[in-house]
Amino acid sequence: MRRIPLGRHTVRLETLDNGLEVLILADPDSPVTAFHTWFKVGSRHERPGKTGLAHLFEHLMFGETEHLAHGEFDRRIEAVGASMNAATWLDWTYYHETFLPEHLPMIAELEAERMARLRLEEEPVAREKEVVANERRFRVENSVEGAASERLWKEAFRVHPYGHPTIGWMGDILGFTVEDCRAFYRTYYAPNNAALVVVGPVDEERTLALLRRTHGWMKPQPIPPPPDAVEPPQEGERAQRLPWPTPTRKTCLAWRSPELAHPDHPALVVLAQVLLGGRSGRLQRRLVHDGEIATDLQGGPGSFHDPSLFEIWADLREGRTHEEALAAIEAELGRLAEAPPEPAELETARHQVLLGFRSALETAAGRADRLGFFHVTVGDVGAIERRQRELLAVGAEDVRAVARRYLVPATRNVLLVDPAEAPS
Amino acid sequence: MSVRFFHEPGPGLGFVDLVLAFDAGAASDPDGREGLTLLTLRLMRCGTARQTRAELDAEVERLGAHLEVGAGLHRVSIRGRVIRENLEPFARLLLGLLLEPALREDDFAQARRLLLAEVTAKRDDDQDLAGRAFRRALFGGGRLGRPSSGTVASLRRITRDDCVRRHRELCARDTLLAAAAGDVGEDEARRLLLEPLAVLPERSGAARCDDPPAPPRGVRAVLIDKPERTQAQIYLGHLGPKPGREHHDGLLVSSVAFGGTFSGRLMQEVRAKRGWSYGAYSRLTRSRTDDSWHIWTFPASKDLGPCLQLVRGMLRDLRRDGVTAEELAFAQGYIIGSSVFLIDTPADRLERRIEVAMLDFPADYYAGLRGRVEAVTLERAHAATSACVHPDDLVVAVVCTARDSADDVRRALADGAVVETVAFDDDAL
């Protein structure tokens, strides 16, 4: 058992005999309880031809089990007004519920049921593949942001699985078999590949006893390592263009950047604040508010288990060109590489870090989210507090150093979206 | 009369939310100048006589705060969140935007250009396009159907003088509500927010909006034509009763039973049984006036026609038979259980109080929600769906590629439906 401080609270971390990790944050003042189940499997664990399986499986987890008819899982949870959902991303999949505290035993039992006793049959799998295909149409095929992001990451990662979309390629989604799904379930949905997070007005001992009863009986499985694909260094810029039925151009840039646990990551977060933060970031002023080249500007470093991308996305105004946006971005990056940020910019970054940290812990669900994410992505809940200290300690020269190290032309990926066909 | 004031404590949170809300919104923008209220707020946010826009932006963020302005149909607000340590200077800064905004001509021109660009950029969002077209058709182009950001044409008509007048209308004690939530005591919040506001005049000239007229009968569809769509975005519905009006509670409960949740009837038929759409929901909009009761779903283009037919048939069933006893009990449990999320945090509790005050909800609308929901019987629920669900008097908005999908829509709606097609970049949307 370990105890880890988090803001005003303490988190208790226990590992059950079957390898299931349990994190409990008892907060007597919370009006609700949050229950999260995190699995250490995401699209990073998939192979070519089978992309999107982790995400499809997330959908299937709402299906029939040995003791629950199809739809009964959702019905029981919603009948007590609980909010519930799930998400899959590059490194993880998680399921979450928030509810009135008295419903914790029922929620824990339902989550255990689908974790261990899911039924996977032809017809529901076929239907859910259609739903996911529609989700892909929604998020990618009919969304300029989704389509551009997918192309940008595919080009940046030619070997590493971060290059394929979490939702999967359409052909892969439609090609999955029931046996694919059963094999995935057997392999990854094991207690020793999962973590439970409970935050709310709970008694630690009683909660642990409950979870030992609901989840402690499950058998651990051998967990295969993720694909050991290492993306070779990028040597030279990669550029592509995307025509799209959109009224305005979008300039999308991405550079290779380090993993979340890397010591340079905090400085890159501060760099992102200096460049892209709020309305006063250097690029916000130059591109959006003073230069009037863009309508909107977003970006920053990825927060993933493996090295990923530092992105800058500019949604340009009508009539403004990619060349203007690129010139402005390059000028600001050059300025930052030459001279470190001003003390006022660092003070802004520090205060925004504090605001972000405190806001993220506002609700039980927010705290459970931070706990699960850091536990699964970097393997250490203590990293939440530590990371805040690291962010606050970033100095001006640290920012300049990472700007020179990472935001360089040789590892830049460029995707330029241009308005295509006029409306009929 | 003093400015209305609300406070919700949240000791230990480490941050404070401050809100200045105004009892006037985009629905009271003058005809032809839609977007005026939002543009005025954007201009107010550009600094004071002693502080340029850039200086203000830098100061807000240096304090560890974020600040935003927003315009709804019936209320607008300037609101921000700040770390506890910098509450006092942030409160001064926030009030300065209300009491002594610079309203400079060059800031006006720049704010208008940005809003114009945002209006254009929003055309990338198919769901937003469908939602806007639906409201415009539902309210017959009237005030309640306007986008709060205006149109390209209306924004171009607005002058700085219009904004100066609008600012004057907003700044009155009977229009304003000041509020604080989070890590601040009530006395301190009152001192920071209320004392400086005593200088405001009492009366305002802000207009209020009446209930909308009943829309014309029959089915009216708007196709928003966008190239290369493989999926349609559908909004479909009609007016629904506002809080406090007969059948509001019955329709609220029935709507949740029908399509308010993942396991509801609508989602089960559209998504779970047929796999046609990632989502399918129904929603009764709570507002100061009667507003929409609508369905939102987004099937693949190939399933657009059958999906429209299915949903319309389900509406007929709902009107004829109402919800079942099991569905009613489920919806009651869901609404009562989930009502905790309405008041989960101090900021949530504050927002509910502001809603009640600004949108003229019955004073006990949220506090009495549980009792009213429990009091909805099967008979009352059925009476509400019989009176309020109109499958033959519908407004339908669909974003699709008209060349590929228009015939499917016409066939699905059949019997005399009026179908109009507009381009996705039509400024009237």
Question: What's this, in brief?
Answer:
The complex is a heterodimer of chains A (424) and B (429). Chain A is of the alpha+beta class and 424 residues long.
Which descriptors would you attach to this protein?
heterodimer, A: 424 residues, alpha+beta, Cytochrome Bc1 Complex, Chain A, domain 1, seven-stranded mixed beta sheet, B: 429 residues, alpha/beta, 2 domains, six-stranded mixed beta sheet, five-stranded mixed beta sheet, globular
What does this structure look like?
The complex is a heterodimer of chains A (424) and B (429). Chain A is built from 15 helices and twelve strands. Chain A is α+β, with helices and mostly antiparallel strands and 424 residues long. Chain A has two domains: 2-215, Cytochrome Bc1 Complex, Chain A, domain 1, CATH 3.30.830; 238-340 and 395-419, Cytochrome Bc1 Complex, Chain A, domain 1 (2-Layer Sandwich). In chain A, strands 1-2-3-7-4-6-5 form a seven-stranded mixed sheet, sandwiched between helices. Chain A has a five-stranded mixed sheet with strand order 8-12-9-11-10, with helices on both faces. In chain A, α3 (104-116) runs parallel beside α8. Chain B has two domains: 4-197, 2-Layer Sandwich (Cytochrome Bc1 Complex, Chain A, domain 1); 220-423, Cytochrome Bc1 Complex, Chain A, domain 1, CATH 3.30.830. Chain B has a six-stranded mixed sheet with strand order 8-9-7-10-6-11, sandwiched between helices. Chain B starts with a strand and ends in a 6-residue tail after the last strand. At the A-B interface, α2, α4, α10 and α12 of A face α2, β4, α4, α10 and α12 of B.
